[in-house]
């Protein structure tokens, strides 16, 4: 079984949704997480904080450069993720379709290379 990363692709406005309006999405995502665990597909998952609160570290040159904010200015960003275990691409496509419905966002699938 391979591991896949399912990235939640969102836009910054999602952080401005009032908690009472976001609660149904949180509940649906929680149910989806429980289903993944029951099916044995769950590896781990997490939501991410606001992209404008990110810090970028670049140590590729002669000095370490620390910058407030995200690496790139974009309209879409990585809002969270799941790492799941699935037999093949067809199986993970079905999981990703359910994930997209649960969280109300687009999902990007990538293989997860373990170190």
Kindly describe this structure:
By secondary structure, this protein is α+β, with helices and mostly antiparallel strands. Helices cover 31% and strands 34% of the residues. It contains two helices and six strands, in the order βαββββαβ. The chain has helices at 19-39, 89-103, and strands spanning 2-10, 42-47, 55-58, 65-68, 77-86, 106-111. The strands form two sheets. The chain has a four-stranded antiparallel β-sheet with strand order 2-5-1-6, covered by helices on one side. Strands 3-4 form a two-stranded antiparallel sheet.
Structural class: alpha+beta
**Overall shape:** globular
Count of separate structural domains: 1
Helix % is 25-40%
Number of helices: 2
Cα-atom radius of gyration: 16 Å
The order of strands across the largest sheet is 2-5-1-6
Kindly report the average pLDDT value.
91
CATH topology: Alpha-Beta Plaits
Give the arrangement of secondary structure elements.
Blueprint: E1 2-10, H1 19-39, E2 42-47, E3 55-58, E4 65-68, E5 77-86, H2 89-103, E6 106-111
Pick out its properties:
globular, alpha+beta, 6 strands, YCII, four-stranded antiparallel β-sheet, YCII-related domain-containing protein, Alpha-Beta Plaits, 2 helices, 115 residues
């Amino acid at each position: 079984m391979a591991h896949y990363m399912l990235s939640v692709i969102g836009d910054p406005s999602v952080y401005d949704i009032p908690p009472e309006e976001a609660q149904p999405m949180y509940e649906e995502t929680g149910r989806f997480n429980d289903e993944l665990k029951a099916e044995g597909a769950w590896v781990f998952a997490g939501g991410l904080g606001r992209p404008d609160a990110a810090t970028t570290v670049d140590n590729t040159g002669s000095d370490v450069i620390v910058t407030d904010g995200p690496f790139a200015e974009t309209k879409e960003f990585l809002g969270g993720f799941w790492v799941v275990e699935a037999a093949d691409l067809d199986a993970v496509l079905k999981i990703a379709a359910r994930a997209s419905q649960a969280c109300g966002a687009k999902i990007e699938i990538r293989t997860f290379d373990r170190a």
